[in-house]
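Review this fold:
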Amino acid sequence: MRWTRTLIPSLRNIPKDAEAISHQLALRAGLIRQLSSGVYSYLPLGFRVLQKIIGIIREEMNRAGASEVLLPALHPAEIWKKSGRYETLGEDKISFKNRAGHEFVLGPTHEEIITGLVGASVKSFRDLPLNLYQIQTKFRDEARPRFGVIRTKEFIMKDAYSFDVDEKGLDAHYQKMYDAYHRIFTRCGLKFQVVNADTGVMGGKMSQEFMVICPYGEDRVASSEDGYLASQDIAERAKPAGPRPQTPDHKPEVFDTPHLRTIEEISHQFKIDPARMIKTLIYKADGKPVAVLVTGNSEVNESKLRKLIGAKELRQADGREILEATGAPVGFAGPVGLKIPIYADWDILEIADAVTGANQKDKHVKGVAIGRDFTPTAAGDIRFVKDGDLAPDGKSKLALATSMEIGHIFKLGTRYSESIGAYFLDEKGERKPAIMGCYGIGVNRILAATIEQHHDLKGIQWPEALAPFAAEVMTVNHGDEKVRTAAEKIYDELTKAGKEVLFDDRDERAGVKFNDADLIGIPAQIIVGERNLKEGKVEIKNRRTGATKLVALESVISGKL
């Protein structure tokens, strides 16, 4: 490909709104351009990288025994309502009504669609197992698109779905996908971790995320020196082992806090450590109100809370429900005197002299002691872990690192096969739901993650497997006929030999070409200049190491780089 015959709009300066390194370099190298918030065009170089990623994914999925399909991006809303996820997706879904008044959803994922397809086609245990995958554009109305193609409203995913007659078959498919993901990300040149994770809105009994450490990711990974590794969504910690503090002699005292609702406001106004404050949140657990207590510097982990309570459905109460449960408006709830079940985090047990809401408007109470002034229904680990928490083994400490998810695999079980309808007759003629697994990869995110892990101050350093071209030919003085002729011959012969070559045939200054070559990051740079050409040689530079060598012109033309 000739530079003058394609679109590579490189930029000298860093765009103002680009925070992530991958976003900055993808824009500067002319890989992408933004159309609107969270929506990007992929230019020739960026699209070639995507194609390389997709090629690797396709090879490994086929190798693992999966069959490729292509499912619609336009989904009737009824099928999402049938699975119960229409409301769960909330404002993330992009939906509309057509001219006939029928509602559609732009596909954010395809569990419902693939399950309906298989359910209509599979009748007997002899039709299973199946593993079907697609590489398709997805749509989610992301509230805060950020960091270029890391978090967008339109993105490309590889999603695979397995269907089995029993758990043993699911385990086998899950392991095949686990192994395939290792091969895919390794071939892409990525350093990654595999962590246990929350199943979230996907459901199912277990999942694992493939993560890359990245300061611009939306997830956090908790790890310890002893080998503990988990997503912060499900990471656990050891119960504090210290002695319980003594109950103070003084009684609780109510004090005025007009218009001060938040932990931050109370802490700032009265100089109280948030760790000494009890944050009281009212939830509805299976339709009934419960109070949930964590320290003022902690956040409730609803997945852990659901397990402690044993609730199937859990949500935060609204203002009216909070008033009914506590007698006070939002911001003034506290555990003293509550007539509803109280669930406390372990940290609450360590506070002897707490400050919390008084269940009265514009009032809080200090000097509160657990056991004397209130008694929890149950206590447990119900907050997100923090740096320095004890790992579950009670010996090492946890450390948190910001990370980006590039792949996620799930054991879904029968959630979708039962709700949508994917049944088969077993050997005894009994009707059974298929056992499902789901396996996703964020294609665009691999591009971003690769740039995050492979760059220097000058630009991108593509791994050979993902580089848009294997080599770039450039002329130092394009106006010199001998230089131009030699470069043309190198480009023509390498192209004929099947090599992927970009020819910078612009009549530009050498410095501009060198800077652009380092910016776009093609692994090998073949530099044709007058001085070396007089000796029958050209210079070859390794973009990653910066090492250069002089090679005979004829050797380069013959493909011996």
Summary: The mean pLDDT is 93. The chain has three domains: 11-68+121-235+401-451, 253-380, 471-557. The two ends are 19 Å apart (CA to CA).
